[in-house]
Amino acid sequence: MAREKHLALPVIHLRQVRAEDEGFLFALFRTFREAEFAPLPQPQRETLLRLQYQAQCRDYAARFPHSEDFIVEFCGQTAGRLLLNREANELRVVDIAVAPELQRRGIASAVLTSLIAEANAAGIALRLSVWHSNPALALYRQLGFRTRAGTATHLELEWRPGP
After folding, report:
1. Nearest-angstrom CA–CA distance, 140 and 144
2. Is this prediction's pTM over 0.85?
3. What is the DSSP string of 25-59?
4. Torsion of CA 9, 12, 16, 22, to 10 degrees
5. How far is CA 11 from CA 5, 24, 55, 67, 114, in A?
6. Cα Rg for the chain, rounded, in angstroms?
7. What is the per-residue pLDDT for 39?
8. How many CA atoms lie within 13 A of 80 on its CB side?
9. Which residues make Cβ contacts (< 8 Å) with residue 111, sequence separation at least 6?
10. How high is the pLDDT of residue 8?
11. Res 5: pLDDT
């Protein structure tokens, strides 16, 4: 059964990813990764971005085979993506991204606040992994996420229900 969810703000809606969303998902991925390949000529850059996107999709599918893939809509517009994995002891945000032109409008905050409420009601942790340099780290901290572990490149964050 397809899951759809209206979040606290009536202008934000989650719906399951459909086949026709593939172009948007790749464009969103490209937005955040293209700078890494800027020195390369366009054909090579495009090929490498597609390969990396496909590799990421395969990796997520292998590590989180039961995850749910959502499109985040804002005021009826496709605005972002949420890949969510539900387990008995945790909710895991595998991937969350909002198109740059729609950032700073409370979209990610509303999605995460809804997930915090779900985790709180279930009495489980909400976890995610983030690059050390990701500007969203400030938002995660503001929402009450704490560092659980870290590597040279990433932080493992979690939000836990209070006692």
Report:
1. 7
2. yes
3. HHHHHHHHHGGGGTTS-HHHHHHHHHHHHHHHHHH
4. -160
5. 11, 20, 33, 24, 14
6. 16
7. 85
8. 27
9. 7, 12, 14, 72, 80, 82, 96
10. 52
11. 59
Residues of the chain with pLDDT under 70: 1-10
The CATH topology of domain 4-159 is Aminopeptidase (3.40.630)
Measure the CA angle with vertex 14, ends 149 and 28; round to 5°.
65
Single-letter amino acid, residue 98:
V
| Measured distance CA(130)–CA(154) in Å, rounded | 5
Angstrom distances, CA of residue 49 to CA of 3, 35, 40, 127: 30, 10, 11, 27
Helix (H) or strand (E) holding 115: helix 107-122
> What pLDDT does 1 receive?
41
Q: Treating both helix axes as pointing N-terminal to C-terminal, what angle do 42-63 and 22-33 enclose, rounded to 10 degrees?
A: 110
